[in-house]
Amino acid sequence: MSLLNIGGGDDPAYRYKMPPVVGKKEGIGNGKKTVLVNATEVGKALKRPPQYLVKYCAVELGAVSTFDKEQGSGTVNGWHETPDLQAKTNKFIKEWVLCPRCKLPETSMELGSGKKSKDIFFDCKACGYHGPADMMHKLATFILNNPPDAKGGILDKAAGGKKTKEDRKREKAEKAAGKKDDKADDDDDEGDEEGEAAKGGGGGGDDDDDDDGDDGDGAMHTSASAVAEREKAAQESFEKIEAATRDLHVEEKVEKAEKKKSKKKGEYDADKFEGEEELEALRKEIGAAVKEAMDVSADGDVNGAIGALMETANKHDLEPNDLFGFIFDTAFDENAVKQLGSHKKVLVKLMKASPDKKKSQKFILSPCVEKLVGDSEYKDALLKKTPNVLKVLYDMDLLEEDIIIGWFDKGSKKKLGKAVREAAAPFVNWLKEAEEDDDDDDDDE
After folding, report:
1. HSE-up (13 A, CA, CB side) for residue 202
2. What are the φ and ψ backbone dihedral angles of 88, each rounded to 5 degrees?
3. Angle between the 320-330 and 268-298 helix axes, to the nearest 10 degrees?
4. How many angstroms separate the CA atoms of 328 and 368, rounded?
5. Over 70: is that where the pLDDT of 349 sits?
């Protein structure tokens, strides 16, 4: 098998070579999959962990991937032609291997530190280039969770690699067992202390000193953790926006004002009407400002859009979920699937600003997505596209797998919630099947 030039070209004297990707189709029906037989060999030639290559191909093909460490091969769900896999590999090389400046595959990959700990950087040994990777690509999240080591592999879990569900379960079991052992040790210590006391020994004083030391260490650890979390939240938040519901935040202010005005009998109805009128006018004003900001985003000016959203948020004391609500209300029409992609950078930055990302994800699902696809003027066109909408949000890392499945399984008593979940079923079932396949692979390992 002849070797290929890394990065393309047909110069036979080019020193950087790689084996071509070998794909093998397996399975039938829902069990169709394509195995990248020589993923390890290709990764070694590219000086990148083969898991990164397999994951990249899967993301680009809209599929789920697994990696067999013993066989050194990767698997991508579905049948894919080898030329297509080679094309995705070439794209991976261009984006994650070649130096942007000298175009040579002499780069190493490392994670940033401090304020840039969530960024990935390339260092080129050929020309000295040092620059960031594309953090918008879904592979970036996978790399952050599975950081590279100095030998072209992935750090093990003890050194910072990603832990599987089985790892977390095992750790919990070990912790539980450890607590039982500690309790047994405490009981033994109490017996020893009683014995020492009976003998006139001074064991009690030593134990007190040890306890004081433990308390001090625990306090220091908790304090450092709390400080780190606060610093992290401050870095990610633009203008210290916190998560909240879209309508309640504004309505609560109006309700408080109404209660103050309604002390005298007979005045409540008039005050209530005035409050609702003001609330509607305020919503229209904010909605128009958000729509204008998202139009700027659609034109490609991400910084301008974010600046406009921040100005609106500061003016009206809004929070990330408030903005998400207004964005889904004003920025999308029957072409929502395409429009979500055009607003990706703004939406991702807004999610990063949320101090409670799980709450924000749940809010995006309900009411934002539910209302958009099932209760807007575009529902006839969008309800059947619910799987596509969720897939785009999932690929953008705005929605996590567990959040989507949890929302679906929880169900809804409302007609709207039931209709949207029924429409979303194909995508959710795909997620569940992929999760089961991942669990099976972890068990096999």
Report:
1. 3
2. -65, -35
3. 80
4. 6
5. yes
Measured in degrees and rounded to the nearest 5, phi and psi for residue 396 equal -80, -5
What gap in Å lies between CA 123 and CA 440, rounded to an integer? 37
Strand order in the sheet with 120-124: 107-111, 120-124, 130-132
The Cα 351–Cα 261 span in angstroms is 37
SS3 123: strand
Q: Residue length, the chain?
A: 445
Q: Return all residues near 153 (Cβ < 8 A) that are at least 6 apart.
A: 49
Which residues partner with 70 through β-bridges?
Answer: none
Tell me the pLDDT tens digit for each residue of 275-333.
567 778 888 889 999 999 999 998 889 888 898 998 998 888 889 999 999 999 999 99
Task: Please give, one letter per residue, the 3-state secondary structure of the chain.
Answer: CCCEECCCCCCCCCCCEECCCCEEEECCHHHCEEEECCHHHHHHHHCCCHHHHHHHHHHHHCCCEEEECCCCEEEEECCCCHHHHHHHHHHHHHHHCCCCCCCCCCEEEEECCHHHCCCEEEEECCCCCEEECCCCCHHHHHHHHCCECCCCCECCHHHCCCCCHHHHHHHHHHHHHHHHHHHHHHHHHHHHHHHHHHHCCCHHHHHHHHHHHHHHHHHHHHHHHHHHHHHHHHHHCHHHCCCCCHHHHHHHHHHHHHHHHCCCCCCHHHHHHHHHHHHHHHHHHHHHHHHHHHHHHHCCCHHHHHHHHHHHHHHHCCCHHHHHHHHHHHCCCCCHHHHHHHCHHHHHHHHHCCCCHHHHHHHHHHHHHHHHHHCCCCHHHHHHHHHHHHHHHHHCCCCCHHHHHHHHHHCCCCHHHHHHHHHHHHHHHHHHHHHHHHHHHHHHC
With tokens 């953790």, the residue in question is 225
| Strands (E) located in 200-260 | none
pLDDT in tens, 14-46: 999 999 999 999 998 888 999 999 999 999 999
Quote the tokens at residue 340.
């979500």
Nearest to 252 by CA among 288, 282, 289: 282
- Mean pLDDT calculated for residue range 219-229: 50
In the numeric block, which tokens belong to residue 242?
Answer: 């916190």
Alpha-carbon torsion angle 75, 80, 84, 85, nearest 10: 10
Q: What tokens were used for 246?
A: 């879209």
Least Cα distance to 426 among 398, 391, 395, 396 occurs for: 391
What is the rounded CA–CA span in Å between residue 203 and residue 196? 6
Place of tokens 């128009």: 288
